[in-house]
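LAB NOTEBOOK - FOLDING QUEUE
OPERATOR: T.R.
BATCH SIZE: 2
PURPOSE: Compare the predicted structure-token outputs for two unrelated chains run back to back under identical settings.
PRIORITY: normal
REVIEWER: second-year student, initials M.K.

ITEM 1
FIELD SEQUENCE / FIELD STRUCTURE:
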Amino acid sequence: MQNNAPWSHEIAIVTGGSRGIGLAIARSLGRLGARLALCATTAESATRAASALEAEGISALGLPADVSDPNAVRRFVSAVQAKLGDISILVNNAGVGIFHPAHQIEEAEWDRVLGTNLKGAWLMSREVAPQMIRQKRGHIIHIASLAGKNTFAGGGVYCASKWGLRGLAGCMAEDFRGYGIRVSVVCPGTVHTEFSPHAGKDPSRMLQPSDVAHVVVMLVLQAPQSFISEVDLRPTQKP
């Protein structure tokens, strides 16, 4: 385990932490010395990601949870607290994307996207908030998207989830700032991962998961008397 003071006492949850953006964020926080709890949809993927980070000298615990299920979220946070202690950083990164014209979206698809991208962030935040309030400190970072600001054909349910996440983040920032808890939202443009190749676009001109991770590290390292409420992140060159 890396033990870089003062970060060895920081305990961070990263949802959707087994791959892509979430894994990059977890790795960057772990390199600062934070102890990590990775939340993924399956035990296999959570354990595999945690083992990969452990091999790099990063303290990581991988546990499965469906972030849209309040009971699963409660069990996950309880397990993390029992094994690691009170959470000081929460990165709500778990997300899914389904893209159809609004009139062709199935109700189950609507529920899946909103349940993961928006409800999941709310449930996880609600569960860790009492711990952070007791500590009078903490960071909650929501990974949204520029789709939370820009509409496009076929993006109805996805855009709705990300616009909603930005609204939730802004209100939470006001709810929690008196307790020393900083709430931020990151809105990346197109990010290249192996799971979302964005056919027809040049990967070298796209954002990389490490770019998003860099922003998260910047947010948590902000001096305590201030916080950055929202960051828009774009590639230098359009893909």
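ITEM 2
FIELD SEQUENCE / FIELD STRUCTURE:
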Amino acid sequence: MTAAKNTQAKQQSGDGFASIFPFIAIPLCFVAAVLLYLFVFGNPANFIDNDPTKDPLPGNYSGMIYKGGPVVPMLWGLLFIVLVFVIERFITLGKAAGSGNADSFVRSIKGFLDRSDINGAIGACDKQKGSVANVVRAGLAKYGEMEKTSGMETDQKVLAIQKEVEEATTLELPMLEKNLSVLSTIASVATLIGLLGTVLGMIRAFAALAHAGAPDSSALATGISEALINTALGIGTSAIAIIFYNVFTGRIDGMTYRIDEAGYSLTQTFASRNA
């Protein structure tokens, strides 16, 4: 079994929960949002005469949020999902980065290669751990194997090392990018759902204005409140999702660059020593 395949086997053994995590977290977030809407924001103490059908108490923001209507718990659910997956990505990418500074690790690998200390480089990978170290370790294992292999041209050996690094990288990337699609989807969907709530609120507001005689000021205020609250929640949730999506993609790009840098050092060192 190659080092890359061995890495894949280790990943698969720990991927069971990661695969079902979204199917558990997403429904729980929506359940929590509905409970928050009904029992916290909809608490009778937030309203005049302890009646949720009446206006909120002056300055009571919980009651105002409740008056945002049925779209509000959907938006809170999306916000909870964003926060949960942001925490999950921080933990996962933190582990993937390894126990030490990735730049220092790559420099140390170059130093070991310059001294032809393959065992020392592998030991550094075992100490560092994480995605970058896993890929470099796979390349180092192939490096050592190619040094002992006869009957192959140097170019063929270099290609074999390069292929091993690419295979290991391909196995690591899905774990790094996992669940980012959830953030990117919510970044767009939250705004649209917020706009839906805005439209519903404005419909209610204009319906109040359309009443014969004096407009229903309470219904008018409720409709405007619904429109503004949903707009704010949708834009805020979308903004948070976009910011952290870009943060995570930037970190992944940085890891990919370090992997490419280490792989290049491996192939070039081998080629120069076996020219």
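REVIEWER COMMENT (ITEM 2): Residues 87 and 118 are 36 Å apart (CA to CA).
FOLLOW-UP: none requested
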